[in-house]
Amino acid sequence: MNKLLVLFLLAGTILIYGQAEPNGFPGIEILPNNHAPDGRYLFSTYTVLGVDVVPFLIEMNTKGEYLFYKSLDAPATDFKIQPNGHYTWFDGTLGKYLVMNKDYKIIDTIAAEGYATNNHELIMFPKGGYMILADDTRIMDLSEIIPGGHTEAEVTANVVQEFDADKNLVFSWNGFDYFTLFDAASDIVLTGGRVDFIHSNSIEVDTDGNIILSSRNLDEITKIHRKTGKILWRMGGKNNQFTFLKDPKGFSHQHDARRLANGNILIFDNGNNKPPLYSRVVEYKVDEIKKTAELVWQYRRTPDIYSAAMGNARRMPDGNTIIGWGFNLTSDGSAQAVAATEVDSIGNRVLEFTLPLYIYSYRVFHYDGKSSSSGRGAVSDIKNILSAETDIKLSLYPNPVFGSATLEYYSGRPGDTSIKLYDALGREVRELANSSSAINAGKSSVSFDGLPAGMYFIRMQSGGESKTVKALIMK
């Protein structure tokens, strides 16, 4: 394979355009015949296979020159530029999104309210406010619902939340209220200890103001009323309401459903349940009245690429389409695998680059123009933010609990602190401790006598942050 350019990354480094390129881990190879228009590619790299690699945020131009990169302590996803010009990504250490300005300085964090923040999608609005995905995990007895179901399964549904410019929650939609376990695609395991039966991976504000939700494990694109939460239609999966024209198999385990300027919907189709296995990008002309989805354009690479998970596709203003191949295990026998392909409107490749095998990017974006940085900025110290976000400590021992246990907690955050016990259905059982001092710390013996055996949750809230631990009560 001819290699136009090979660049290298080094763990623990920050690079702003104009500084020397360090030696280190092999990185990106841009393949020949590069005809992409000027602009910037943004993506993050990590692995999901236990390979010892360092995660990175990367911004490079179409010539393969790095404008910026930052090594991280944990995987990051959804690294992109928002409409207000800020960079955002989900940080796996913090479990929330970080916001970075044009000078590469971290200025804010964003998280869901009342639920764990999901790592798939954050949309910030030009005039302020944002929409985010979250996870609602409940302990459920599935043994009487699903043959072979676990008696204490951790079942996760996804939540769509919208916040205004002041971070006030103005809309919350919970998948538990609208989907059932039986909606899951045929290959989704419902008998394990952890059940992820929806697995939403993208949210899109439609042209009429409502929400388009993509859910991988349902094989479904769902349109949701933005005020009432009512499902307006369901495309794909077991509850499909649409007739697919010129594409009888439809899509499977899809990602990144986006409404285009021409009114069509663009989807990255992973294709998991459609042998022979290959991934592609599809564009459907959708009639929401007649419930038809007509295939009007697709890109299937030659030779085929199969991405079992992740991936995205975005239509550029010039008509090109940038495709991130996600979890691509396809290789031509070399040590690299295609990470991204950009094609023109008739499917000609204008740029393609690879990553080393077993290193992936959740999404790849192409933005017009050059970096706005002066070249003298630096990334704020993520470790300082990490310490600020994690200065809440909560522990219970011994655990499992027989009768009583020791509860120990600490918070350096100003404001009220409360610690409450909840049952497996999320109902408050009792308050275990509270304080209103600037430094909150305590250690006490807590009796659980009189409570039924089972899984409980202890949640500490302090200074706008929270921490939850499980408590397994035995008899």
Overall mean pLDDT: 85
Which structural category do the helix and sheet elements fall into?
mainly beta
In which order are the strands of the major sheet placed?
Answer: 1-3-28-27-26-25
Give the count of structural domains. Answer: 2
> What percentage of amino acids are in beta strands?
over 45%
Reported for the largest beta sheet, the result is: 6 strands, antiparallel
Q: Under the CATH scheme, which architecture of the largest domain would be assigned? A: 6 Propeller
Determine the number of helices (DSSP H or I, runs of at least 4 residues). Answer: 1
The portion of residues assigned to helices is under 10%
Oligomer: single chain
Q: Terminal Cα separation, in Å?
A: 65 Å
Q: Say what the CATH topology of the largest domain is.
A: Neuraminidase
Number of strands: 36
Global morphology = globular
